[in-house]
């Protein structure tokens, strides 16, 4: 049961249903992409999985390696192994990236365990080198005054340090120029492996040129309407989303 | 600009606050006790016990009259002041012991207090230079030998006035006159304890002088009096920190701190206060900076029922500099009314005010400041920055900056901001695995981080810990 299993998930925001019996399974070790037009519920899926209180789960289940995470607090879900890279990461004035990651790691310590600062900094610098992040970055406040590319690299850096079992990347490619996109994709590719399952949420196919997914799912009106291999992304790129809307089951997208 | 009309009268009924921070109390036998209430007999009692000179007794009696004559400043300040019952306060308590001279002589109870304050074992030796106030009298005072060799005098107020009048009488009550305000008058009438420090010309005291003190008796007001004189070119840093036990009824703390920095001298005065939620903390602090001298107040106020404190610097000599860095944290039922006063009285004087306040729950923080630059002065500068952080939607903050700048030969900058910890920020941090209260704590620590860096290491650590404790249970 090493997978992220989403079963018949129904999610509402302010009483409006956004996700409708959404089901998807991402096995650990695989990268799945979810594509779809704007307003179809992609970001809602990410926020709901992470336990955001504004996203009301009215039905369904989510299992992380068999552990039910619906109803848990966001921090519990995080420590259970689900990481979310934000489309719009928040700024935390006065809190340095190093201290922030340190606090997040400290929150994961077992009782009796102590934080090992030298090993932490060694690893942090290694990961920063991989992501082509300047050392001076560690003393900057989290996301404060960052460019779009810096924010996304900072997200991937946190992911690399926290080593989640599963990562949901919410529109990580938005606002990135091609160089930044490559750096972020490199980072994700290096973490790719049997210990990580990735759910890549994107509107554009271009990210998938750099992170080649194992599976592609097309989402429309709160559910998945088609699944396939990487070739599905290419079809979307060539033909747009119009055919998806037409192919959607009756009643969807009314 | 300043407006006081919208300050509503507010009174605080019973405070129902769970509080373990600094919540400890040791039974202490008092040898001298002036009883409750305040009359001329109280003054005589204090003066007799202390064996004071006639001029000090007269000073006290004059102050008592001023105190009784002066109205409460409730026309602009909180009406909560009217809830202080002066008849129920004990104005003087003492164990009657001479200040201890070595660590071994310090009573075990006091040592326990130090332990509760979290002073590491290693630092205890370092504390040989500490003046610690346990109730009214300095119970422990021992100057490091090198300090004494340099001619630095570091004693309690009683000893300072008695043994070194030639040094202290000249400035005592001069920076803050008796009649400055009702509470400076009260302090002048019944003061005991505090630190008197004189640093001779050119002497730069390397290690900070510290005083830890606390209130340890119900209904016992603490009225310590501090006077620090840095002679020409001298430099000294003084640190005070307080924790107080919780009691059923209100406790009044009303200190007076006067600083005198003569030509080219530097004084830095650091305070970290963590009063329990029933304490009225009404303190007058002011420094006088002569030619090229520098006075810096670093002030952190956590806790208390009502704190009113506006450290000030009078820049009397050309080129003098004044600075106030202040952090205030107000919890439910607490009101931090703090700020700064910068009085420019010579050319090319510079002042800087940085104030950060945090309001949690129904806590209220107020910034109140005065910057005065008269018309004839030139080349004066002031920079004021006030930032407020609100944790909950029902938290409250107010800013009353009064900046009086006449003429056009000086520059003044004022910036103020109010921000709130957003739900999205908290969600972001929680998504990284931080529990909600830790996330909140981190956001608050981030808000004050640049100011906390100005504190000495051991204080910044203690401060972060205090903020963490204050944030526990503030969410959800």
Structure, described:
The complex is a heterodimer of chains A (254) and B (476). Chain A is of the alpha/beta class. Chain A has a domain at 3-89 and 164-247: P-loop containing nucleotide triphosphate hydrolases (Rossmann fold, 3-Layer(aba) Sandwich), CATH 3.40.50. Chain A is built from 8 helices and 12 strands. Chain A has helices at 42-50, 74-80, 97-106, 117-130, 148-162, 178-191, 230-239, 242-247; strands at 3-13, 16-27, 31-35, 56-64, 67-68, 82-85, 92-96, 141-142, 166-170, 197-202, 215-220, 223-228. In chain A, helix 3 (97-106) packs parallel to helix 5 (148-162) and helix 5 (148-162) runs parallel beside helix 6 (178-191). The longest helix of chain A has 15 residues, at 148-162. Chain A is globular and about 55 Å long. Chain B is an alpha/beta fold and 476 residues long. Among the domains of chain B are: 32-309, no CATH class; 432-476, no CATH class. Chain B has helices at 40-50, 54-69, 108-116, 121-126, 145-149, 157-163, 165-168, 182-190, 423-431, 436-452, 457-471; strands spanning 32-33, 93-94, 131-134, 137-141, 153-156, 195-199, 209-214, 225-230, 235-243, 251-253, 256-261, 266-275, 279-289, 294-303, 306-309, 312-315, 321-330, 335-344, 350-359, 364-373, 381-390, 396-405, 411-420. In chain B, the strands form 3 sheets. In chain B, strands 5, 6, 8, 10, 11, 13, 15, 16, 18, 20 and 22 form an 11-stranded mixed sheet that branches. In chain B, strand 3 and strand 4 (137-141) form a beta hairpin. In chain B, helix 1 (40-50) packs antiparallel against helix 2. The longest helix of chain B is centred in the last third of the chain and has 17 residues, at 436-452. The chains are: A alpha/beta (254), B alpha/beta (476). The A-B interface holds A 50-53, 73-75, 77-79, 83-84, 86, 89-95, 100-101, 103-104, 107-108, 141, 158, 162 and B 422-425, 427-436, 438-439, 442-443, 445-450.
């Amino acid at each position: 049961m090493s997978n992220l299993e989403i079963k018949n998930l129904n999610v509402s925001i302010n009483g409006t249903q956004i996700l409708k019996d959404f089901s998807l399974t991402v096995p650990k070790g695989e990268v799945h992409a979810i594509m779809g037009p704007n307003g179809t519920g992609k970001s809602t899926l990410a926020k709901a999985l992470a336990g955001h209180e504004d996203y009301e789960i009215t039905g369904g289940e989510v299992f992380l390696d068999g552990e039910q995470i619906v109803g848990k607090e966001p921090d519990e879900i995080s420590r259970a192994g689900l990481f979310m890279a934000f489309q719009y990461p928040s700024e935390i004035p006065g809190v340095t990236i190093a201290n922030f990651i340190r606090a997040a790691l400290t929150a994961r310590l077992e009782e009796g365990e102590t934080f090992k600062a030298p090993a932490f900094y060694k690893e942090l610098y290694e990961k920063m080198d991989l992501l082509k992040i300047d050392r001076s970055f560690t003393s900057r406040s989290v996301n404060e005054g960052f460019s779009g590319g810096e924010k996304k690299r900072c997200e991937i850096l946190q992911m690399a340090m926290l080593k989640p079992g599963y990562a949901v990347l919410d529109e990580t490619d938005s606002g990135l120029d091609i160089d930044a996109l490559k750096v972020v994709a490199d980072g994700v590719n290096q973490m790719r492996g049997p210990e990580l399952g990735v759910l890549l949420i994107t509107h554009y196919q271009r990210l998938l040129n750099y992170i080649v997914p194992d599976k592609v799912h097309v989402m429309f009106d709160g559910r998945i309407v088609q699944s396939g291999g990487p070739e599905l992304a290419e079809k979307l790129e060539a033909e747009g989303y119009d055919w998806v809307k037409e192919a959607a089951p009756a009643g969807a997208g009314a | 600009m300043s407006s006081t009309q919208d300050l509503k009268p507010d009174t605080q009924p019973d405070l129902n606050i769970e509080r373990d921070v600094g919540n400890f109390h040791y039974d202490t036998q008092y040898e001298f006790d002036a009883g409750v209430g305040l009359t001329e007999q109280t003054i005589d009692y204090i003066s007799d016990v202390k064996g004071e000179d006639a001029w000090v007794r007269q000073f006290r009696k004059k102050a008592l009259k001023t105190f009784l004559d002066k109205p409460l400043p409730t026309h602009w300040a909180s009406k909560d002041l009217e809830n202080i019952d002066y008849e129920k306060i004990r104005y003087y308590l003492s164990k009657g012991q001479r200040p201890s001279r070595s660590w071994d002589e310090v009573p075990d109870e006091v040592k326990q207090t130090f332990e509760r304050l979290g002073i590491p074992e290693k630092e205890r030796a370092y504390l040989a230079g500490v003046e610690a106030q346990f109730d009214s009298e300095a119970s422990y005072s021992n100057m490091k030998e090198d300090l004494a060799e340099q001619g630095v005098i570091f004693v309690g107020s009683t000893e300072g006035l008695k043994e070194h009048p030639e040094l202290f009488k000249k400035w005592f009550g001069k920076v803050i006159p008796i009649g400055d305000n009702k509470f400076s008058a009260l302090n002048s009438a019944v003061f005991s304890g505090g630190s008197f420090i004189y640093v001779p010309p050119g002497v730069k005291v390397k290690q900070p002088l510290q005083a830890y003190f606390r209130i340890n008796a119900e209904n016992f007001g603490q009225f310590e009096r501090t006077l620090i004189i840095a002679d020409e070119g001298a430099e000294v840093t003084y640190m005070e920190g307080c924790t107080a036990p919780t009691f059923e009824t209100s406790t009044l703390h009303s200190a007076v701190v006067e600083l005198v920095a003569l030509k080219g001298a530097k004084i830095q005065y650091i305070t970290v206060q963590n009063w329990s939620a029933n304490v009225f903390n009404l303190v007058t602090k002011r420094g006088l900076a002569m030619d090229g001298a520098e006075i810096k107040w670093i002030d952190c106020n956590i806790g208390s029922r009502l704190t009113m404190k506006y450290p000030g610097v009078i820049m009397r000599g050309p080129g003098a500099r004044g600075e106030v860095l202040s952090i205030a944290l107000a919890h439910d039922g607490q009101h931090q009314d703090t700020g700064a006063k910068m009085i420019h009285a010579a050319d090319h004087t510079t002042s800087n005010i940085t104030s950060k306040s945090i309001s949690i729950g129904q806590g209220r923080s107020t910034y109140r400041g005065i910057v005065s630059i008269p018309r004839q002065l030139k080349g004066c500068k002031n920079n004021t920055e006030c930032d407020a952080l609100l944790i909950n939607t029902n938290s409250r903050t107010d800013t009353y900056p009064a900046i009086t700048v006449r003429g056009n030969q000086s520059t003044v900058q004022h910036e103020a901001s109010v921000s709130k910890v957003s739900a999205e920020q908290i969600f972001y941090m929680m998504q990284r695995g931080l529990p909600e209260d830790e996330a909140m704590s981190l956001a608050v620590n981030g808000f004050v981080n640049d100011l906390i860096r100005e504190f000495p290491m051991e204080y910044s650590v203690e401060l972060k810990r205090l903020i963490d404790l204050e944030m526990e249970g503030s969410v959800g």
